[in-house]
Amino acid sequence: MAERIALVTSERGLRLDPDLPPAASALRAAGLEVDVVRWDAPDVDWPGYALAVVRSCWDYAWRLAEFLGWAAGVPRLRNDVRVLRWNTDKTYLRDVERAGLPVVHTVWDPSTAEELPEAGEWVVKPSISAGSRDTARWTDPGAALAHVAELAAAGRTAMLQPYLPSVDEAGETAMLFLGGRFSHAVRKGPLLQRGEGVRQDRNSRGDLRPVEETTRQREVAQSVLDAVADLVPGAPSPLYARIDLVDDGGGRPVLLELELSEPSLFLPQAPDAVDRFVAAVRAELG
């Protein structure tokens, strides 16, 4: 009997995740039974799956306690619940920076203009968020601080970062790892527009194209991934990882986000990566 795999998604992911069709098709072609299942669907026999792979659970940010509670009850989940607990709050960037790795300069819950890093623009976002919700780019320090205060008043941790001008030209470089090995790189176009304020309808998959990564990007991304074993002790190695890099003022790649919870893998932009995804899943099955 073929082993059963669950690709775990959400209501929105079922409608919008472009990775799910090629991933499910390739896994079935490899002889596995595959169900595409919402994480919050009732009466799912999670222990009956040989592996449950978290994919597009894009509503976790406003249902985090419920989501992590669910994850704790799934016996063969990847990425592991310990990874999800650590990675679903972007305060993990503090740990990454303490490990000596290059991270975009971040100020947590600033309350005065003197605390802001020197920059022409700033990005403010909540530490628990997905899809750029409640995120904005500001040129006015007062507006940036007002955004921080609004998040704090709602009981959320706010993070403020300088907006790096390189993003407008080079975008972000998403470095994708499958089964612990580098798979492919994708350029993500600039998402935050000057003067638009907070929006909840941005499409982070609208401007994507495969790119050739640089040696330095490979080195930084690999170092970040290698650090996870120490930062999340006892957790199995991530089945998948997306490491989003941007260039700082000196042209050096620095970490913007380490996506280990529900990242798009950009499989349509790198068709060969589907086979690497299947190989990574089969390796998890032993």
- Count of discrete domains: 3
Reported CATH architecture of the largest domain: 2-Layer Sandwich
Give the spatial strand order of the biggest sheet.
11-10-9-12-13
Radius of gyration over alpha carbons? Answer: 19 Å
Give the distance, in angstroms, between the N- and C-terminal Cα atoms: 16 Å
Remind me, CATH topology of the largest domain?
Answer: D-amino Acid Aminotransferase, Chain A, domain 1
The helix/strand class is alpha+beta
Count of distinct strands: 13
Low-confidence spans: none
Report the CATH superfamily of the largest domain. Answer: ATP-grasp fold, B domain
Mean pLDDT, to the nearest integer, reads: 94
Q: What's the story with the biggest beta sheet?
A: 5 strands, antiparallel
Question: Would you kindly provide a brief summary of this structure?
Answer:
Helices cover 30% and strands 24% of the residues. With 286 residues, it is of the alpha+beta class. The protein starts with a strand and ends with a helix.
What does this structure look like?
The chain is built from 9 helices and 13 strands. It is of the alpha+beta class. The chain folds into 3 domains: 4-87, Rossmann fold, CATH 3.40.50.20; 92-102 and 165-264, ATP-grasp fold, B domain (D-amino Acid Aminotransferase, Chain A, domain 1, 2-Layer Sandwich); 107-162, no CATH class. The strands form 3 sheets. A 5-stranded antiparallel sheet has the order 11-10-9-12-13. It has a 4-stranded parallel sheet with strand order 2-1-3-4. It has a 4-stranded antiparallel sheet with strand order 5-8-6-7, covered by helices on one side. Helix 2 (20-29) crosses helix 9. 40% of the residues are buried.
